[in-house]
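Incident log, structure service

09:12 report received: a user says their structure output differs between two submissions of the same chain.
09:20 pulled the input from the user's history:
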Amino acid sequence: MSNPAIWMNGRITALSDAHVSLFDHGLLYGDGVFEGIRFYDKRPFKLAAHLARLQRSATAIHLAIPYSADALSEAMRAVVSASDSPNGYVRLIVTRGEGDLGLDPRSCARPNVFLVAAPLRLFKESEQRGIDVIIASTRQPSPDMLDPRIKGLNYLNRILARLEAIHANASEALMLNAHGYVAEGTADNVFVAESGILRTPPATDGALEGITREVVLEIASDCGIDSHVESLAPFDLFTADEIFLSGTGAGLVPIRTIQGRATKQCPGPMFQAIEQAFNQRVRGEDQTT
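09:34 re-ran on a clean worker, output below:
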């Protein structure tokens, strides 16, 4: 592991000094929330949007973050400044904190908050122009079970789906909800393009309201591409002209095959147009907004 830059509970610290208790409920029960944030040329991308989503996730699970958005912004700038790389990834985590054994969170006196800047690459460099994807048998919980807008620490169902992909020699797995509609990938949103129309699943079908997903939709609007947030079935994946993924960790990645079936175009013209505009945006705009 490279030497990460770490901010924990109010200060920059060395990896050797960054610890959470074995009784932290984030470790014991996955009780907490997080955000993944990219930075380019030492500037966080869409930081305000990420912090707003973090607060919504925390509010939804009745978790009080002990730092303001301004304080977390300062922490982010400190971590990015301390990072060895001009471009990278920061994981911002808020755990419930140390408490007694058992699910009752009332014994947790204060949440732990930490940011870690470290390398992250979900797909190999050679896969950036097309990956192989399966449809996992592991399902995404429906919103009436666990709202996908909560970016929580428990990713076990996603890990199980990714293991399915690994065992199938695929790079990623797409997950369906209990009704058989497409939700998302294990760590990314999915888009399909057909007949010049771009579509992506809604949160009501189990999709995270991704920050990068929102940027893609904004770019599509700017480019005059007709886009819709609507339900998708596996049929829509198999018959699409193009399929691609978006995510803070993944970036934008086109899909070459889905369930062993070659997509019609990879990378297709819509993906390439959006990718070009996306790259210009992350490098050119004020990334702190």
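09:41 both user submissions now match this output. Likely a transient worker issue. Closing.
09:42 reviewer note: The longest helix spans residues 269-284. The domain at 125-282 is CATH 3.20.10.10 (D-amino Acid Aminotransferase; Chain A, domain 2).
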